[in-house]
Amino acid sequence: MASVSDRSLTRAEAEGRAALLTVDRYDLEVDLRGLLEGERWSSVATISFQCHEPGASTFVDAAGVVRRATLNGVALDPAEVAEGRLPLRDLAADNVLVVAMDTDETADGQGILRTVDTDGLVYVWSSFEPDEARRAWACFDQPDLKAPHAFTVHAPTAWTVTSCTAPDSVVDAEDGGRTWRFADTPPLSTYVVVVNAGPFHEIRAQRDGYDLGLYSRQSIRAVLERDAEDLFRVTAQGLAFFGERFGSPFPQARYDQVFVPNLGGAMENWGCVTYGDGILPRSEPTPDDRSWVAVFVLHEMAHMWFGDLVTMRWWDDLWLNEAFASFASTWAMANATEFTDAWATFLIAEKLVAYDEDMSPATHPIRSEVPDVAHATANFDGITYYKGQAVLRQLVEYVGEPAFVAGLQAYFARHAYANTVLADLVGAVAEASGRDLDAWTVDWLDRTGADTLSLGGGELVGTAPDGGLPRPHRLDVGCFSWSGDRLERLARVPVELSGDRVAVTLPQADLHLLNDGDLTYAAVRTDPASTRTLLASAGALPDALSRAVAVGTAWDLLVRGEAAATDVAGCLLDVLEKEDSPAVVEPFLDRAFALVERWLPSAAQPEVRARLADVAARVAERPGLRGSALRTVAGAAAGDAHRALLDAAASDDTDLAWRLLARRAELGEPVDDAVAALLDRDPDPEARFRALAVRASAPAEAGKAEAWTALLVDREVPAGGAVREVSSRFWRPGQQELLLPWAHRWFDQVAAMPPGGLLSTMSLVRMTYPPIGDDAVLARAREAAAADGVPAPVRSMLVMGADRLARMLRARSA
To answer: Which of 162, 166, 277, 769 could pair covalently with 254 via S-S, beta carbons 3.0-4.6 A apart?
Structure first.
């Protein structure tokens, strides 16, 4: 037996292997019984495949310990495995390869994660994007060698196993445990199949002909039961919407969703989506909590068509996979669910992230060359997801929604269960719309940065960051005039920019809102009088999306150094004084809180923080908004009135109670007894990490050191929300002197970080990046990004983080 190390598949190797082989099927036998009390995952992969040049050689990916292997009945030498590859020589026209393999590396989330819950129960999940299936069993691990997969899984008796299809049978195994056999999948890429197992709590429902399943670990059973109806409703709504819009209903009856511990995101496995269970709020969900869960559900569901049914040929089109799912989720939210203001939520919570990243030195085109799989996730960021989503929305406006839908339906019909490149999708939409999209595609996907569109002198003028002509834009200008204390929309004037300027005839108005409806992706600058009205009175605009566009414009002015943080804070607070849309209240509150903590000059912070707490307290009196608003009051509490309000509300709201304790600790108050008491009454299995976050808030070395070790040394804080909370409580504003040495230490820690799963490692670096610093910290950031051996995704995050910190420091010093 031989142990192996990684070697990344190159594009050239993948193209050569795809030309040589056709994979007929995978029959996979997986033994999980060694995971009940140990770390071993075992597999036997039987791969039937054709070789188009008999006598040729290739290799199979096998990034584990190969115990035995045969090719067409002839034994292969496991000692020949090198860098995760087993050579295959003298292939026949038709071949059967059998590889038995073990892996004991099930603790770091590289393809497989075994977790022992606080109650002692063991759960196992798999997640294979981009090329982690090779760690679970031997396979040709590239997206364009699709094949049906048949799973036989041996598991402990008490465990439930989920995979891509319904189980055909579950029987007792002669040598212990139970054996689960699953129906064949359709032809699928290796990265979208799955095996999850553990003593799950299961809830099932029949909706519109679909058999829907929900699973969670037992320790959060009550949370899943609370949210099950919401989850079933949005799942059924999404399946109906996508089935109709894509002209192709999801083709199997069973659709499972599994909420697992310590997964930093979600994975779109065919018919069996996995989510990090941190997306399920432990306290009563706010409107924003419910909206985020719906976004996750619909994003992963959209991948069933775009990614699973039709799959990109190579990872250079990964952006399209993710951007399309992001676009489709918001499209479905706005049209098929209760979350009708979803485009406003997207703008404030996500699209602004893309704008910020797109102006950094780490900006990149939406699509780029991917020479090997190691670079596939280099651009897994806000530009890929959120700019990509915005560009797809602009494409819908450019060609018209009916043509876009017709193009999608033709695309799915032509390429079901096959692989495509971008030109296949663009060609289908171009054919349906009658518009030539070749130049449009190059302009939007191969150029970096955001254009700036400026209104004045009777024309709209566009400038591009690369000095060339701006991209083509289809947008609206909203014209608003005062009617009492409200700004009323007089007209919405459509504009199409195809060069660097276009004449625009607008009615006289008090505010001309550029990009009303948020149809395009661009920095916008309206006339000076309108800008003054926007900053002072954005809350008077008539709908959530127009208010979000105003706030987004103000935020861009701040980030680019064209507006003072105090003026932008005034804009946000004016909106919050009047906002009643659940879709944007919490995103607006979060944006205002971030501005106070990270962007305001220190001298202005106390006054604006107190005003924010006052405004949030008034928002809490509005129907349905109490929970959202009190979270901000807890973070910004600045007086006895705020404390009294929070003490009363926190008695039966553990989430709020933890937030209040964190604020008290940050202010230097003793909280140890209160923390111990709250731990006793909080049923959340991750409550100990909330206690850790409280201790990290205090201006004391001991709490910082404890949190640091848990986050970055032992890496025991669950991925996702828990990492975000502990990290945000660690880096508190007002603790600059204490935290500067830790900021320098962070770069050393990241440089020495051991490998881990894609999602957890990327989220850890992003969420723990220090927002505290000075010129010396910025120099460390740039030095760390330039170091040899830094993984491409981490390098990008280091550069973007440094740019964001530099902009914050500039705003604070203004």
So the answer is: 166
Q: Within a 10 A sphere around the Cβ of 7, how many other Cβ atoms?
A: 17
**Angle, CA 313 vertex, CA 312 and CA 317 arms, to 5°:** 50
Beta strands 523-525 and 452-456 are: parallel
**Which pair of structure tokens corresponds to residue 14?**
């993948």
pLDDT digits (tens, 9 = 90+) for 31-65: 999 999 999 999 999 999 999 999 999 999 999 99
What 3-state DSSP class applies to 372?
A: strand
The CATH number given to whatever domain includes residue 49 is: 2.60.40.1730
Q: Is the pLDDT of residue 2 over 60?
A: no
Domain presence at residue 430: yes
In terms of residue numbers, what domain contains 184?
A: 1-190
Secondary structure element (H or E) that encloses residue 572, with its range = helix 565-578
At 4 the pLDDT is: 41
β-bridge mates for residue 147, sequence order: 188
pTM of the complete model beyond 0.90: yes
Written as one letter, the residue type at 202 is E
726 within 8 A of 658, measured Cβ to Cβ: no
Percent of the chain surpassing pLDDT 70: 98
What are residue 29's DSSP bridge partners?
44, 152
pLDDT band at 789 (very low <50, low <70, confident <90, very high): confident
For residue 214, is it within any domain? Answer: no
User: Is the same domain home to 314 and 183?
Assistant: no
What Å distances lie between residue 77 and 61, 64, 104, 436, 782, CA to CA? 15, 14, 21, 55, 47
Tell me whether residue 488 is one of the annotated catalytic residues.
no
- For residues 732-766, one letter each, b for 16 or more C-beta atoms within 10 angstroms of the residue's C-beta and e for the rest, the string is bbebeeebbebbbebbeebeeeeebbbbbbbbbbb
Out of 300, 322, 586, 597, which one is annotated catalytic? 300
Tokens linked to 803: 């740019």
> Which has more pLDDT, 524 or 791?
524
Of 154, 169, 190, the one marking the end of a domain is 190
* Whole-number Å distance between alpha carbons of 688 and 695: 11
- Domain boundary at 411, 445, 479, which? 445
- pLDDT in the model for residue 1: 31
Cα–Cα distance, 221 to 230 (Å, whole number): 15
β-pairing verdict for 272-276 and 254-260: parallel
**Residues 6 or more apart in contact with residue 402 via CB below 8 angstroms:** none
Buried b (16+ CB within 10 A) or exposed e, 179-202: bbbbbbbbbbbbbbbbbbbbbbbe
User: What DSSP state is assigned to residue 753?
Assistant: P
